[in-house]
Design brief:
By secondary structure, this protein is an alpha+beta fold. It has eight helices and 19 strands. It has a six-stranded mixed β-sheet with strand order 10-11-12-9-3-13, sandwiched between helices.
């Protein structure tokens, strides 16, 4: 087994008493002494600091980088204004999802953030798929996520200019004398900021943020329950190479100019199948939210059945939602079972636990839109 990589905050995690676990090839904190439930609740009520430095940070340079990237993703990158960020998907020729990523228009180049487990394959995919004259630079930087309703109060004291941004804006700032790239975004459903910082300055910045009274260090356990309540996909679980964007309920990630009848229709891998599904709506399954009854959580992999005992789907993410106060999950069901309120039954250790198809997100988002 290869040795686990470490983020620039590894020593700090140990100092803070984190429980470390292998994740995407890194030694990562799953929780701190506060515990997953309290870390989750603290992020929802105040402010949590997450180490997401394991994510891949890339720069794409070359002539018309937005047009070049559109050959690999169905998002509208050409129409993305400078200083803004957009969610995108790498798709395969078969219409499946190779990874999801964030794309920032940084002026004369694009800044990409990709998933840690897919980082190497994404870089290879870009280098293989982009036309000649484009360069991918893999950055060695830390990435911190400051999330929660009090994140703006913290940022107002340390970097007030960043508070002028709205959800999905990006800018370059100085925070306590440290040069940083900040996006007003995150993966918890709350208002917050993602802060990219030079690797050697990451620990100093994290310590400074943790000095603020509202801020607690938060691990991957709470990050997972927070993003699940927010109805956000985790690559390799809720989306993968066997799932199309339409099945995943991510039609909104297919830019209108990239659809049939748009200014730049198709031109990305799997476009024929994906755009057919957008129009014909003849896909066989759909990602849905699921609310459980009682207290027993329903975990990933639990099979779903209808009232007659027919298998109709599978849970891809699940657990107890501390903010919701009941079990929450997401998964895929046959289209006939995807109507809001439809009842399905999850097989948990031989017991069939009732669940109902629900809207997502399960919590009201706190994104700041101005």
């Amino acid at each position: 087994m290869s040795e686990l990589k470490q983020t620039p905050l590894h020593a700090l995690h140990r100092e803070l008493g984190a429980k470390l676990v292998p994740f995407a090839g890194y030694d990562m904190p799953v929780q701190y002494p506060l515990g997953v439930k309290k870390e989750h609740e603290h992020t929802r009520s105040a402010c949590g600091l997450f180490d997401v430095s394991h994510m891949g940070q890339l720069l794409l340079r070359g002539p018309s980088p937005a047009e070049a990237l559109e050959t690999l993703v169905p998002a509208d990158i050409v129409g993305l204004e400078e200083g803004w960020q957009r969610y995108a998907l790498f798709t395969s020729e078969e219409g499946g999802i190779l990874d999801d990523l964030m794309v920032v228009n940084a002026g004369d180049h694009l800044y990409l953030v990709v998933n840690a487990a897919c980082k190497d394959q994404d870089v290879a995919h870009l280098r293989r798929g982009l036309y000649e004259g484009h360069e991918i630079e893999v950055l060695d930087r830390g990435l911190l996520a400051l999330q929660g309703p009090r994140a703006v109060d913290v940022m107002a004291r340390l970097c007030p200019a960043a508070c002028e941004m709205v959800f999905m804006q990006h800018g370059r700032f100085t925070l306590e004398g440290i040069d940083v790239w900040i996006s007003r975004s995150g993966y918890t459903g709350e208002d917050g900021f993602e802060i990219s910082v030079a690797a050697e300055q990451s620990e100093a910045l994290a310590r400074r943020l943790l000095e603020e009274s509202e801020v607690e260090a938060i691990g991957l356990g709470a990050r997972d329950s927070l993003r699940l309540e927010a109805g956000l996909c985790l690559y390799g679980h809720d989306i993968d190479t066997e799932t199309t964007p339409v099945e995943a309920g991510l039609i909104w990630a297919i830019g209108k100019p990239r659809r049939r009848g748009g200014e730049r229709p198709g031109g990305f891998p799997g476009a024929d199948l994906i755009l057919h599904q957008v129009e014909a709506k003849d896909h066989r399954r759909k990602r849905v939210g699921l609310l459980g009854e009682g207290r027993a959580p329903v975990r990933e992999g639990a099979e779903l059945f209808d009232a007659d005992g027919n298998r109709v789907g599978v849970v891809t993410s699940g657990g107890f939602g501390p903010s919701v106060g009941q079990p929450v999950a997401m998964g895929y069901v046959a289209l006939e079972q995807a109507e809001l309120g439809a009842r399905v039954f999850a097989d948990v250790r031989g017991k069939r636990l009732p669940m109902s198809v629900s809207r997502m997100p399960f919590v009201t988002p706190g994104y700041y839109r101005g």
